[in-house]
Amino acid sequence: MSSAGLLLKRAGKSAIRNLIPLSTRKRVAIWVNRQQWLNPDRRSWWSAELVRDFAEKDVNAYHKFLWAHHLGYAAPYEAATRFGAEKMRPSRTIFFAELRRCMEALNLSPGQTQSVLEVGCSLGYQLRYVETDLCPGAGVLDGIDIDRHAVQSGQEHLRAAGSRISLRCGDIQQLDELLGGRVYDLILCTGVLMYLKEADAAGLVRTMLSHSRVMLALAGLAHPTRDNAVLEGSDVRDRDHTFIHNFDGMVTNAGGTVLARRWEGDRQYEGQTVYFVFAAPR
Ligand SMILES: C[S@@+](CC[C@H](N)C(=O)[O-])C[C@H]1O[C@@H](n2cnc3c(N)ncnc32)[C@H](O)[C@@H]1O
Questions:
Q1: Is the separation of the CB atoms in 242 and 236 below 8 Å?
Q2: Separation in Å, CA 232 to CA 123, 203, 229, 247
């Protein structure tokens, strides 16, 4: 598209945002996403574009809106394309290998892990990998996610596969209330804290540590040039309004201990960076 065309398109989008109130655009975004006759990429693009200015007003609420309604970047999360070790993203293959190594080094045999919680589990495909490969002895495998479509279709897929995994829909900002007194040997939270502002992400790290018996395993966006561990505050990735956090600092501030970590800066594996922190509670 020519630069004049791009300018016109941008002016058109901002006119729509100025003329139509956000509450109406949110309803239209949900409606657009349901229109099967539209090409899926167009549906996903329009539903995110209609509410893009929401991110500037309340970034946590913006991300929650997209995930909760399976819009924009949430749309590709479908059972047919996510379950199975062969479909795991390369950065997660590295994450699970690192997690296994870390558990074994600490004599925490993955085979003896009894209970696992995944915070922001989507369809439950990572929990399924944990159930079949990493911790086959685990009797409790729970997942919580705000994306109702992913939770329902993931649970259906898991039921048909004879899995013990239990998924529920909920906002992880209410994790403490959702979990009550429950404690898990291992808690996983990968690619999720980036959708929360620094103080909220730090609060969630504290909550997850307080509900983990043995280990909390985190994966998030790596800062491209500085080790996340030295960041004094979280950085913003402008293109999608997500956050680059310092998990190491969040863990220690919450009284936890960093057992192992990995940061690879700007190196990308199919578009994903590597920043993992494996932590023990107090
Ligand atoms: C990028 S996906 C990552 C999914 C999976 N953990 C992985 O690593 O492949 C982020 C997930 O976090 C969930 N999520 C984001 N904000 C949430 C919130 N406030 N409460 C519950 N789930 C949330 C989304 O619905 C989505 O399934």
A1: yes
A2: 34, 16, 8, 11
Residue with tokens 């990308």: 268
Compute the distance from residue 109 Cα to the ligand 1 centre, in Å: 27
Using alpha carbons, select from 251, 280, 123 the residue that is nearest to residue 193.
251
For ligand 1, atom 16, the nearest C-alpha belongs to 64
- The pLDDT value recorded for residue 58 is 92
Picking from 105, 109, 126, the residue whose alpha carbon sits closest to that of residue 117 is 126
- Consecutive H or E run containing 55: helix 54-57
The pLDDT of residue 2 is 74
Question: Pairing relation of β-strands 140-145 and 115-119?
Answer: parallel
CB atoms within 10 A of CB 108: 17
DSSP secondary structure letter of residue 174: G
120 lines ligand 1 (CB under 6 A): yes
What's the rounded Cα separation, in Å, for the pair 167 and 120? 10
Q: Which residues of the chain have pLDDT under 50?
A: none
| Residue position matching structure tokens 């897929």 | 157
Residue 172 near ligand 1, beta carbon < 6 Å: yes
> Could you tell me the distance, in angstroms and rounded to a whole number, from the CA of residue 121 to the centre of ligand 1?
6
| Backbone torsions φ then ψ of 135, nearest 5 degrees | -130, 70
